[in-house]
Amino acid sequence: MLIDAGFSGRQIRERLARIARSPERLDGILITHEHSDHVQGLAALASKLNVPIYCNRLTREAIESQMGIRLNCQTFITGGAFEVGDLQVETFSVPHDASDPVGFLLRTPAGNIGFLTDLGHATKLVLQRVRPAHVLVLEANHDVKMLQEDIRRPWSLKQRILSRHGHLSNDAAADAAQEVMSAELKHVFLGHLSRDCNRPELAYKTVNERLQKIGASHVRVELTEQHLPCPTLDISAMQNGSATVTPAVPEFPPTSVPRPDFPPQQVLL
To answer: Which domains does the chain have, with CATH numbers?
Structure first.
């Protein structure tokens, strides 16, 4: 299962191949919202492959309007749940400047995966819906000070990013991780990092230090990168408490490789 399709169709195929996967083997593509950094590869995949696409009605209409295409989608109602094989997908609304943006909680026989990116703040509903997660993909988009001091962005864009319908800062990500903390949560993957207004080591330090401060030493914090696959988690091993993370990148992701702002988004499950 792929969440979002922010790369080109060719890039998606190449990146799946790095982890011994192919688009033809996908059971479906879940779409969070219509922004181009989340769907620019969707048209190519939809035209060449018979892969089911799952999104809500307003997101489908927005994608069709901006791309000038018709999508054969399986439409869900935000707040509802549906099944894809043995995977149960729970959807919930998130505060972001899109038509009807959503997050996901994926319930699998091996464990629950929360997916939470592109939101200006973590509402009580959002926190409640991802609290059952054993693994959480969490946005840590920017450092507030770096964003405020950035000379490339106009003030209007800074206001958008900092707004309650923008993106989570490192501190806001740490707050969210603290709020959803449980004995069952084992892994937090930080994503959607800004190239100019964040640094991987800063995002990691902010969230990891908060978790250590509250005694959540059982949680492993990982960084995701746009240009390389992140470490692969074998979630099936969590049932016996021996989940393994296979590094796909150096222990600390390199900061010298430029990343587009915002990096294209997709996650393979």
So the answer is: 2-268 (3.60.15.10)
